[in-house]
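hiii so um. not sure if this is the right channel but i have a protein structure encoded as tokens and i wanna go backwards to a sequence. like what aa goes where. can anyone help
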């Protein structure tokens, strides 16, 4: 998975995804009618119509249920904000913590409407760089307002974020580089010294800085990302469980099975059997 994607926006007919996937964005979803059922790393959430849903797309996700045809001509709007652009938005505080912790939220009902989304799409399709910059600026202001007035939590984050996130701006460049390295090398074995080399910082400081900004240790973050990748491979490939473990960066099968059962409540072969 590339850690950071490109900005994008599209309208389309909702459709079931054949397999879970992940990519380097925070993603906004809007539905004009009915409901859309998702699974995020094994956790189900139902997205309502006319609410903007936000989540980190680096967490494996899959649409498994689309609106009833009786809901009429339903359309879906997706906005893809690159992860690094999201991380560099200032003063979002707990909102950033929630999204980067794997949470899924619904923005306030008055955060955006159909007319605004339609205008944003025209700006995006215009090919005019200034209009695209205005669009991105409006998205940032919308998130800033949401951080102040609150949001509805659809799925709680798996990182128990604590603290105010003060000092985040001065450290983001390094933490963003760490997340990029982790995401782009998650299928390979690596340790904190490797992450440190990607930033040019001392390993001890890297661990302290990452925990201060992300409210979780590098080790726990990496383990979780490896498990997310493993679960995605479990349902999207015919690889053996052992090969999935190694393709997800685990070097010990016993550790993989232990961590997988701890995260999902059952061993991988049973999870796949029950799911299918």
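sure thing!! here u go:
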């Amino acid at each position: 998975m590339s850690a950071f994607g490109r900005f994008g926006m599209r309208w389309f007919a909702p459709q079931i995804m054949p397999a879970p996937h992940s990519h380097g964005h925070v993603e906004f979803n809007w539905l004009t009618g009915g409901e859309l059922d998702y699974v995020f790393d094994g956790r189900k959430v139902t997205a309502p119509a006319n609410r903007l849903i936000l989540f980190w797309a680096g967490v494996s996700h899959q649409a498994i249920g689309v609106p009833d045809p009786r809901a009429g001509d339903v359309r879906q709007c997706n906005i893809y904000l690159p992860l690094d652009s999201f991380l560099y938005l200032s003063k979002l505080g707990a909102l950033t913590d929630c999204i980067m912790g794997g949470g899924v939220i619904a923005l306030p009902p008055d955060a955006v409407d159909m007319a605004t989304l339609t205008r944003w799409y025209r700006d995006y399709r215009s090919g005019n760089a200034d209009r695209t910059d205005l669009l991105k600026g409006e998205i940032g202001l919308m998130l800033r307002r949401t951080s102040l007035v609150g949001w509805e939590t659809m799925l709680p984050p798996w990182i128990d974020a604590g603290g105010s996130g003060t000092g985040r701006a001065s450290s983001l460049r390094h933490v963003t580089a760490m997340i990029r390295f982790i995401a782009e090398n998650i299928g390979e074995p690596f340790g904190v010294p490797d992450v440190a080399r990607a930033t040019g910082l001392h390993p001890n400081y890297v661990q302290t800085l990452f925990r201060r900004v992300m409210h979780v240790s590098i080790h726990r973050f990496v383990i979780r990302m490896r498990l997310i990748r493993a679960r995605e491979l479990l349902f999207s490939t015919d690889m053996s469980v052992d090969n999935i473990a190694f393709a997800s960066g685990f070097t010990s099968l016993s550790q993989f099975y232990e961590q997988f059962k701890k995260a999902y409540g059952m061993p991988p072969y049973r999870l796949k059997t029950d799911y299918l």
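oh and The chain has two domains: 8-155, 168-275.
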